[in-house]
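If your schedule permits, I should be very grateful for your opinion on a structural question. Thank you for your consideration; the sequence and its tokens are set out here:

===
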Amino acid sequence: MFIDGQTEIIEKHITRNHTEIMLKLFDANIEIKKINQNNHILIKGNKELTPKNISIPSDLSSAAFFIVATLINDNSQIKIKNINLNPTRDGFLNTIIKMGGQVIIKNKKEINGEIVGDIYVKHSKLKGCELDKDIAKLMIDEFPILSIAASFANSPSIFKGLEELKIKESNRLELIKYNLNNCGVYCEIHNNNLLIDPTKKFDFKSNIIKTNSDHRIAMAFAIMGTKLGVNLNIQDSEYIKTSFPGFSKEINSVGGNLSE
């Protein structure tokens, strides 16, 4: 609706996001206000945007694969520079730390309205954890690789409220379960909650990883293969290029052994 020349978009749950930050950087008239207990985005139109030079930080979702590879492989350590640490996307890092991951963030600074920092990671003895549905929205894309970390923890994990995983590029919830079970890891789904219990040992069933052309499933189980000691055959792995064209090369540069 239009109020006093302003376009008003109403949302009940709004935090600072990339769109708001970037529009403000370009001098847009945009702000978030609480009105009658609800958060409102207020935008005043007819404002000419000002072009700016911007620095794009590295993506935490892509860095997550390297973080988990380091955590689960003995004697590993890595430094990943200039990672976007936007608080609406930091659920993965908070969870990894909760699981006992040795993760240190240094050189935090603000660039173009975004918090950016360097991440130092060392191999760690991980423990399982329980996550409620509220954290899911902060890390929905990271659950495939988080499930790999949970598979090598010393206690069970349960991740709740993952119904959105069913409607991503694939039904990621079912694919996580299917592939973990094939790799000998106990995994069950109950009412959109994912249970992973690495303390229950099962026989390795198959080295075929089914991805249904989902790039994040493919990358997650490529990382699992770095620890299993078994050659995994990842179907439709070419779809990794949709989000990370140099994935194999970068993993191999830090000690991986992936072939296309």
Remarks:
- Residues 1-15 have pLDDT under 50 and may be disordered.
